[in-house]
Write a structure and sequence with these properties.
By secondary structure, the protein is mainly alpha-helical. The radius of gyration is 23 Å and the shape is globular.
């Protein structure tokens, strides 16, 4: 069950409330653009995106500029995947200019566009431009304390390190790579593929800087982590080591809640840290003000049996990921939709362990027969429907 990119869900929802005019693209046009990108038909996505952007640039609709920038984001990504980094960079930087014209040049959206432009410019061997863009992106992120431990921060620091490396400034590359690894450790843990992959770059930066001992020490540390990872070791959050009794404390550890949610949805019920992550999410969600989880009558009945109780963990994890990815503190139909799909995918991967759950099988059967009716079924069962 394929979920649509969350960004584009927001775009399409925004357009659904707009009055259609001659200069505004239709929902169908946006849908075709989305489909082309998702299907990796990048040349087609660029053509469709440029056509949509041209119309948006002529529109007086108050939403047009915001949607224009989202479309530009994915045009840039499409160029990059076609190995045309300079075109990608120019596209991203044009979106930055548009954001500044809109008076939101200090927004996180602008920071993301700047960092994308930085990465693209550096890939196109325009290192000075790339470094400047990513450094400007970092200046913006630093104004948002809540973004200190995020993939946006980690990505920006990593791109700055990479640009310094290609500029031959290896000591600066080391400094920013260490900072990127520090954020990545909090987001994914040391015993993660992401952390281990990134450590290899630090080794290379040390070597280029002539710091062979540090390079060798880093290699040895990486091997130690790899050995532990291969033996099943993970450093996942532990609720017993955290004070999760208040909303303020829970907010501090949102990134840990996200890690737990991601682990639950990507591992089997029998995995070593499943119970630990589930306990963390339960305790965090009770006191957190960053999430609201509702359970409908049908779901409550479903979670009451021994066979189906484990799937509440997946439902809670789905709600958590959606809430934190979208900064959504209330329980919405979109959150419910995503959580149900996450839970059903999890069920399909663990059904052999628990046996069939009749309530969940109904959803699966409807999905296999008619996807539209499947989504209607989820909408009908939304707990807070008035």
């Amino acid at each position: 069950m394929r979920k649509i990119i969350i960004t584009f869900l927001a775009v399409l929802q925004a357009f659904s409330v707009m009055a259609q005019t001659d200069s505004m693209p239709s929902d169908a046009e946006l849908g075709n653009f989305l489909a082309a990108y998702n299907d990796e038909a990048y040349s087609k996505a660029i053509a469709l995106g440029n056509s949509i952007s041209e119309r948006l640039s002529k529109s007086n609709n108050p939403y047009a500029d915001s949607v224009y920038n989202v479309v530009q984001l994915y045009i840039g990504k499409s160029y990059f995947r076609l190995e045309k980094p300079l075109e990608a960079a120019r596209t991203a930087y044009n979106a930055v200019k548009k954001l500044r014209e809109m008076g939101v040049g200090e927004s996180m959206q602008c920071s993301i566009m700047l960092d994308n432009a930085g990465m693209y410019y550096t890939s196109a061997e325009k290192v000075d431009s790339g470094l400047q863009c990513s450094l400007e992106a970092l200046q913006i992120i630093n104004r948002y304390p809540d973004k200190a431990v995020t993939t946006d921060m980690q990505s920006t620091l990593m791109h700055i390190a990479e640009s310094y490396y290609y500029a031959g400034k290896y000591q600066e590359a080391i400094i920013y790579e260490i900072r990127a690894l520090s954020v990545l450790e909090k987001l994914n843990g040391r015993y993660s593929k992401e952390y281990m992959d990134e450590m290899q770059y630090l080794t290379e930066y040390y070597r280029k800087a002539g710091q062979e001992k540090k390079a060798s020490d880093n290699e040895a540390e990486l091997q130690k982590i790899q050995d532990g990872y291969d033996d099943g070791q993970r450093d996942l959050p532990d609720a017993d080591l955290r004070d999760l009794s208040s909303a303020a404390e829970c907010h501090r550890y949102n990134y840990e809640a996200y890690r737990c949610a991601d682990y639950l949805l990507s591992h089997r019920l029998t995995s070593a840290y499943f119970s630990q992550c589930f306990k963390y999410l339960l305790m965090w969600s009770v006191a957190s003000s960053d999430i609201t989880v509702s359970i409908g009558e049908n779901e409550a009945k479903n979670f009451s049996s021994d066979k189906s109780k484990p799937y509440f963990a997946a439902y809670l994890a789905g709600c958590t990921k959606y809430a934190l990815e979208n900064n959504e503190k209330t329980f919405t139909p979109e959150m419910f939709n995503n959580a149900m799909i996450d839970m059903l995918n999890f069920y399909l991967g663990n059904r052999d362990l628990t046996g069939e759950v009749k309530y969940l099988e109904k959803y699966i059967n409807v999905y296999n027969k008619d996807k539209n009716k499947f989504y209607e079924m989820i909408e009908k069962n939304f707990p807070n429907k008035k």
